[in-house]
């Protein structure tokens, strides 16, 4: 994610998750990597020490993620949609139930929560508002239809319900 200085919308759950990840990185993962790095360094010649270089790379990735999380959390605003203001429309933080139809296949029902890209997780049905489907759903309400041309074919999403 690029850091452009703009505020970042997060759900309360997303904020808690990112804080927990940062806490784990700082208190558990980074100290463990520093220990592993010292052990690998003790094995001698660093130019041919694959373990040292691998752990050094893991530490650099952890450091980069820590910096990113500090930046995101420093600009984060927790947002909870106001049902009266949203008036039945899909907005950031809402849950959307859809019927999905793909090129003649059996219709499926899915439920998504619209979140920021920092907390999106397809395995947990958290959909980024910046994703093709997330951006198409924003502003829509029950009964509206959204079509997405995906590599697997045309996907048709009919909004069944929006909740907050």
TrEMBL record:
Entry's Gene Ontology molecular function annotations: DNA binding; RNA polymerase binding; translation elongation factor activity
Gene Ontology BP terms: DNA-templated transcription elongation; regulation of DNA-templated transcription elongation
Domain Transcription elongation factor GreA/GreB N-terminal: 9-78
Protein origin, superkingdom: Bacteria
Keywords: DNA-binding, Elongation factor, Protein biosynthesis, Transcription, Transcription regulation
Residue span, Transcription elongation factor GreA/GreB C-terminal domain: 88-164
Family: Belongs to the GreA/GreB family.
Function according to Swiss-Prot or TrEMBL: Necessary for efficient RNA polymerase transcription elongation past template-encoded arresting sites. The arresting sites in DNA have the property of trapping a certain fraction of elongating RNA polymerases that pass through, resulting in locked ternary complexes. Cleavage of the nascent transcript by cleavage factors such as GreA or GreB allows the resumption of elongation from the new 3'terminus. GreA releases sequences of 2 to 3 nucleotides.
Name by which UniProt lists this protein: Transcription elongation factor GreA
Organism: Candidatus Amphirhobacter heronislandensis
Lineage of producing organism: Bacteria, Pseudomonadati, Pseudomonadota, Gammaproteobacteria, Candidatus Tethybacterales
């Amino acid at each position: 994610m690029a850091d452009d200085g703009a505020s970042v919308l997060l759900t309360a759950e997303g904020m808690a998750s990112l804080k927990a990840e940062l806490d784990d990185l700082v208190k558990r993962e980074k100290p463990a990597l520093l220990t592993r790095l010292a052990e690998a360094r003790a094995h001698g010649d660093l130019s041919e020490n694959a373990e040292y270089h691998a752990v050094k790379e893991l530490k650099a990735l952890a450091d980069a993620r820590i910096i990113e999380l500090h930046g995101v959390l420093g600009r984060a605003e927790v947002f909870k949609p106001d049902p009266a203001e949203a008036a039945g429309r899909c907005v950031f933080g809402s849950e959307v139930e859809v019927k999905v139809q793909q090129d003649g296949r059996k219709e499926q029902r899915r439920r998504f929560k619209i979140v920021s890209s920092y907390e999106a997780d397809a395995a947990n049905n958290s959909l980024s508002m910046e994703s093709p489907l997330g951006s198409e759903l924003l502003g829509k309400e029950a009964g509206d239809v959204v079509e997405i041309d995906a590599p697997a074919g045309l996907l048709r999403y009919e909004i069944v319900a929006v909740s907050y």
